[in-house]
Amino acid sequence: LPCREIVKHQLPVASSLIVLLEQLRQLMKTYSFVRENVEKVCLQCHKIMESNSNEDNDIEKITSPDFSKYLYFLFAPTLIYCDTYPRTAVIHWDYVLQMFGQVFASIVYVYYVVVRFCVPTFENLNQNEITLPIFITVLFNSIMPGSLFLLLGFYGFLHCWLNAFAEMLRFADRMFYKDWWNSTSFAAYYRTWNVVVHDWLYTYVYKEIFILSGRKNRVIPAVCVVLLSATFHEYVMIFALGFFYPVMFLLFGVVGMGFLFFLPRNKGVVYNILLWAFLLIGVGLQSCFYFMEAYARKSCPPNDTIWDKVIPRSVVCRVSLPSTKLLHIDL
């Protein structure tokens, strides 16, 4: 398992993220490929059985997608398998280089934000002296870096990276996201932020559960989608960072679900401002808690118990911390 190899070889954060995200990508693509073709193959087998033919070459009559189609699907920027996709006529290699260049620039900018804004905030933070005013100050100092992580991740991956591969593969359907920044509710935000993943969740989770529930209840499928998405997000964060701290799951799967079902779905500038306020505070909280825990695990002595793996060390650490810089943590 990838997570086992990550723990065994103690991979740094960036390498762990690459392995984990690739694992999830392959998992979702494989499920889509099987799900879209198993019905076709079963239907062909059923027709052969109904024909009562005993010929030995009947099995050869069962057709399946060519390997070239599967190989194209593995690299195409989509998680829904189709035998054919809309294609463009030519490849603009200058556009591809431009997109990859902007991906590299986004990565460099993320590193700069960590070194310039996050390290000075957390390197001298004494876990034993954190009070509510200090925590609020640290939280507000984390909102801007967290917001930049959100925007740079969106632009670097959903826009630049996916468009680069779409251009190289002449993949014409490039609606990887919609205008999520204009959303006035979290329901709209979840649908438009990442259309690639949303389409997979809607097709293979929401619709399937909705059909199994008798097409009468839309709440249960929505809850399952949110919990599944939050679980996989937390899985990535646990093994990438090397510790269990379910901030992502609580904010995404619990608080986010509350916003999804209980906040009014009205339109207007005021609701868009409120959504942005909640969103920025949320990414600020995530950045604040994760950096505090990373610094605590770098500075506080570990315990040789299983609880050390699941209890946040930033909560139980009660020693005066030396001035160990977070910059020393492998990125």
Compute the average pLDDT. Answer: 85
Query: Care to count the β-strands?
Result: 0
Fraction of residues in β-strands:
under 5%
Helix-strand pattern: HHHHHHHHHHHH
Low-confidence regions = 319-331
**In angstroms, what separates the terminal alpha carbons?**
22 Å
Number of helices: 12
Radius of gyration: 23 Å
For the largest beta-sheet, the strand count, sense and barrel status come to: none
Domain unit count: 1
Shape: globular
Coarse structural class: mainly alpha
Q: How would you describe this structure to a colleague?
A:
Keywords: Acyltransferase, Endoplasmic reticulum, Membrane, Transferase, Transmembrane, Transmembrane helix. It is found in: Endoplasmic reticulum membrane. This is Sterol O-acyltransferase 1. By secondary structure, the protein is mainly α. It has one domain. It is 68% helix and 0% strand. The chain is built from twelve helices and no strands. The longest helix has 38 residues. It is globular, with a radius of gyration of 23 Å. The C terminus is likely disordered.
Task: Sum this structure up briefly.
With 331 residues, this protein is mainly alpha-helical. The chain is built from 12 helices and no strands.
